[in-house]
UniProtKB/TrEMBL annotation:
Keyword Disulfide bond: yes
Protein name, per record: Pectinesterase inhibitor domain-containing protein
Pfam families attached to this UniProt entry: PMEI
Domain Pectinesterase inhibitor: 30-184
InterPro entries: Invertase/methylesterase_inhib, Pectinesterase_inhib_dom, Pla_a_1-like
Transmembrane regions: none
Family membership: Belongs to the PMEI family.
Signal sequence range: 1-27
Record lineage: Eukaryota, Viridiplantae, Streptophyta, Embryophyta, Tracheophyta
Domain of life, per lineage: Eukaryota
Key words of the record: Disulfide bond, Signal
Length: 189
């Protein structure tokens, strides 16, 4: 009878132990910081708190972001910036192909295309700087990257006398993503 009790309860205890270990590792994962916590920390204490919802929405949509620590999210945000600038160049090319633009608008589109292509090279450099821990180089690169999108918007601002540029959303996404990535990296120090 005693022997039978032991044979039943040992596997049961092992199961309990396994469940306890699993629960512990889940807790550890959660305490590493959620996307919300990392975005809140990165955007706090400056003029960037308005970016927190954008930070959360864009990063939560990215594969691998759940359970990533700040360092991992910094890499994900920088890669998202690279993808965004690549997509922006494609969008600009499509707009140029579609045609129907005035001469000044064509000039503005050409300026945007040049700026975004230049910026793509610099995002590549930023990805490398982050991977090798050169955080000052990274910050300088991302400053140049964000400026390209602002320059594009400004090129249209002059043409459309303050009206909406056809690249407004593209430019805003680009600036916001670049800023979010740079803020997360800054929060690592
Ligand atoms: C960019 O971020 C600002 C907050 O800083 C927000 O108001 C704006 O809607 C965002 N732009 C886009 C395209 O999501
Ligand atoms: C750029 O990033 C923003 C924010 O993640 C996203 O909403 C948008 O769809 C991206 N744009 C392109 C063209 O991929
Ligand atoms: C970011 O992109 C690089 C280069 O494509 C890749 O090696 C790396 O795994 C990516 N990192 C993340 C976190 O997605």
């Amino acid at each position: 009878m005693a022997a039978r009790l032991v044979s039943v309860s040992v596997p049961f205890l092992l199961l309990l132990l396994l469940l306890a270990v699993l629960a512990g590792s889940r807790a550890a994962l959660a305490s590493a910081g959620t996307v919300e916590q990392i975005c809140a920390k990165a955007t706090s204490g400056g003029s960037h708190s308005g970016l927190a919802p954008f930070c959360v929405a864009s990063l939560q949509a990215a594969p691998g972001s759940a359970g990533a620590d700040a360092r991992g999210l910094a890499a994900i945000a920088t890669n998202l910036t690279l993808a965004n600038y690549t997509a922006a160049v494609a969008t600009i090319k499509e707009l140029q192909k579609r045609g129907g633009w005035s001469a000044p608008q064509r000039d503005a589109l050409a300026t945007c295309r040049t700026r975004y292509i230049e910026a793509l090279n610099v995002v590549h450099s930023a990805v490398h700087a982050l991977a090798t821990g050169r955080l000052q180089d990274y910050a300088a690169d991302m400053g140049v990257v964000g400026k390209a999108a602002t320059d594009c918007e400004d090129a249209f601002g002059a043409v459309n006398s303050g009206g909406r540029s056809p690249l407004r959303k593209v430019d805003e996404d680009a600036v916001n993503l670049t800023t979010v990535a740079a803020l997360i990296v800054r929060s690592l120090k």
